[in-house]
Automatic annotation (TrEMBL):
This protein's record includes keyword Magnesium: no
Function recorded in the entry: Catalyzes the deamination of adenosine to inosine at the wobble position 34 of tRNA(Arg2).
Residues involved in Zn(2+) binding: 67, 97, 100
Active-site positions on this chain: 69 (proton donor)
Cofactor: Zn(2+)
Similarity comment: family membership: Belongs to the cytidine and deoxycytidylate deaminase family. ADAT2 subfamily.
Complex and partners: Homodimer.
Classification of source organism: Bacteria, Bacillati, Cyanobacteriota, Cyanophyceae, Nostocales
Free-text remark on how the cofactor is bound: Binds 1 zinc ion per subunit.
Protein EC: 3.5.4.33
Name recorded for this polypeptide: tRNA-specific adenosine deaminase
Length: 165
């Protein structure tokens, strides 16, 4: 178990995290097949119900904010008619960037679960730590490393294929 996974309290919780990360990986595959960097995100409630999904859409929408996390947060806020998502968990295959970390904090999400660290722009734990910085006005529980190998493999395979084209 890595440091990031220390918040997992039991096997059932880990299985739940795996289930939703697998769903996020499926969304990431859709994004990758559409020419986007393969990142997927889902938001679930405390009763384990799916609230919203998102996948990278920067290229398709010509929108620099079209990251999977932003798409999922927008969809959840619209569906719930509330921008405060303080009772919800966001699952995403890649550690969020500074923009997405800021949106996660501002949406007041309760928990973030992510797959693989982003050594270039990770803004949760790897490069910078926005949730624990003085700029954050909301506590965020973070669990990293869920299905880390699968998330890393998906991204590496996509980038390798892109470079070969």
């Amino acid at each position: 178990m890595t440091n990031h996974q220390s918040l997992i309290t039991n096997h059932q919780e880990y299985l739940k995290h795996q289930k939703w990360m697998n769903h996020a990986l499926e969304l990431a595959q859709v994004a990758g097949d559409a020419g986007e960097v393969p990142v997927g995100a889902v938001i679930v409630d405390a009763a384990d119900n799916l609230i919203a999904t998102g996948e990278n859409r920067k290229e398709r929408d010509q929108d620099p904010t079209g990251h999977a996390e932003i798409m999922a947060i927008r969809a959840a806020s619209q569906s719930l008619q509330n921008w405060r998502l303080d009772k919800y968990t966001l699952y995403v295959t890649l550690e969020p960037c500074p923009m997405c970390a800021g949106a996660i904090v501002h949406a007041r999400l309760a928990t973030l679960v992510y797959g693989v660290d982003d050594t270039k722009t990770g803004a949760i734990r790897t490069v910078i730590n926005i949730p624990n910085s003085p700029a954050s006005n909301h506590p965020l529980q973070v669990v990293g490393g869920i299905l880390e190998s699968a998330c890393r493999h998906q991204l590496q395979t996509w980038f390798t294929t892109k470079r070969q084209q």
